[in-house]
Amino acid sequence: TWGLSRRTYWDSAFDFLSGTLQKPTIWAEPGLVIAQHMPVIIWCQGSWEAQEYYMHKEGSIDPWDRQFPLEQKNKAKFHIKHMTKDFAGIYKCYYKSPAGLSEQSEPLMLALTGAYVQPSLSVWPSSAVTSGESITMQCSSSLRFDRFILIQDRNYNLSWTLDSQQHSKMSFQAHFVLGSVTANHNGTFRCYGYLKNDPQVWSTSSNPIDILVSGLERYQKVLIGVLVTLFLLFFLLLLLIFLRYQCKGKKKNSVQGETNLQHLAGDPQSTLRDRLLQKRSNPDTDNKEENLCENNRFFEKGDALDLSLTRLMGKVWGQHSEGPNFTMEV
Predict the structure, then answer these.
(1) Which of 155, 154, 151, 216 is closest to 181 using CA atoms?
(2) Distance of CA 103 to the CA centre of its chain
(3) Which of 231, 153, 148 is nearest to 194 (CA)?
(4) What is the C-alpha to C-alpha distance for residues 138 and 150, in angstroms, rounded to an integer?
(5) What are 200-234's pLDDT values in tens digits?
(6) Comparing 252 with 316, which gets the higher pLDDT?
(7) Residue 35: pLDDT above 80?
(8) How buried is 135 (Cβ within 10 angstroms: 0-12 exposed, 13-18 middle, 19+ buried)?
(9) Ramachandran bin of 180, using left for φ above 0, alpha for ψ from -120 to 50, beta for the remaining angles
(10) Average pLDDT over every residue of 192-202
(11) pTM above 0.85, yes or no
């Protein structure tokens, strides 16, 4: 998990322990990184038929410890009162039942901190970063550590290990590049230094740095963009529908107007009577109706004048077979 060797050369001596029973699980409280002289408990949980639990530590052939199950017979605890270099290492557990011996659990690495002076931790460009951006965290020390490890508090899945690089005569450092940070990177980070020949014995933790990731995730930004686009398309669709109905209404009013004019030309008297009745029921249209009446009177006078002129010209052409060619405009 932390880029450290999990070599357990004693495993081959216990290959015969593997069986078909339920594989036990192993964990440590309060965690996997324990300060020097602090207590720690290693738990091993297996089957309800377990009669005894065994703990092995890397480098040991004989069981490092054995414990009977608690009242809840499916687990046992192995207590370390004071954490020292001797207890740092990799552990596995298994149990015995009437059906035989179980297979071994997954390895658990228990690290001691406080064996060396602390390194310093810095971040660039800032501890406050927007989601999707990159940051660089530098762990440096005046001691010649072989490696540096960067860990997020209480989240050992977020850890990085790099070899130490000599920056100057009295400075050794490593640069941890965290690309495309997400909300999972929110939290406190610390770094440690250690030597290759003792990879579970670490320095005192560096100064903590709190990383604050703000902003939306990339997929959330894409989702918001899609929703905004759909909203705009929907708005444009409604606008087009509105304009279409508005154009239809204007066209309908135009056709209605032409029909009214045809009625006026066909039967002026009847149309006038209808309009006058409408005028009495709707006083707001008095002025419009008066103009309409004046127009009708003009049309009537024009028709009578045109008829008189036609009769006069007929008489003239009847008396003179040939006469001057002229056109009269009214």
Answers:
(1) 216
(2) 42
(3) 148
(4) 9
(5) 999 999 999 999 999 765 566 677 888 888 888 98
(6) 252
(7) yes
(8) buried
(9) left
(10) 97
(11) no
Residue 247 confidence class, pLDDT cut points 50, 70, 90: confident
* Residues with Cβ within 8 Å of residue 32, at least 6 apart in sequence: 108, 109, 110, 111, 156
The C-alpha atoms of residue 158 and residue 175 are separated, in whole angstroms, by 16
Q: Which residue has the tokens 């608690």?
A: 70
Q: How far apart are CA 4 and CA 32, in angstroms?
A: 14
User: Can you read off the two tokens belonging to residue 308?
Assistant: 């008189």
97 and 24 Cβ atoms separated by less than 8 Å: no
Contact 113, 204 (CB under 8 A): yes
Q: Which pLDDT does position 242 carry in this prediction? A: 84
What element of type H or E holds 36?
A: none
Domains of the chain: 11-113 (2.60.40.10), 120-215 (2.60.40.10), 220-305 (no CATH)
In this structure, what token pair is assigned to residue 194? 């250690």
Peptide bond into 24 cis (omega under 30): no
Band (pLDDT 50/70/90 cuts) for residue 294 is: very low
Q: Span 140-144, mean pLDDT?
A: 96
Q: Which helix (H) or strand (E) holds 29?
A: strand 25-29
Distance from C-alpha of 138 to C-alpha of 204, rounded to nearest angstrom: 16
For the segment 40-69, the average pLDDT, to the nearest whole number, is 92
Looking at 174-217, list the stretches that DSSP marks H as alpha helix, in order from N- to C-terminal side: none
Cα dihedral: 225, 227, 233, 234 (round 10)? -160
Cα 121 to Cα 123: distance, rounded to the nearest angstrom: 7
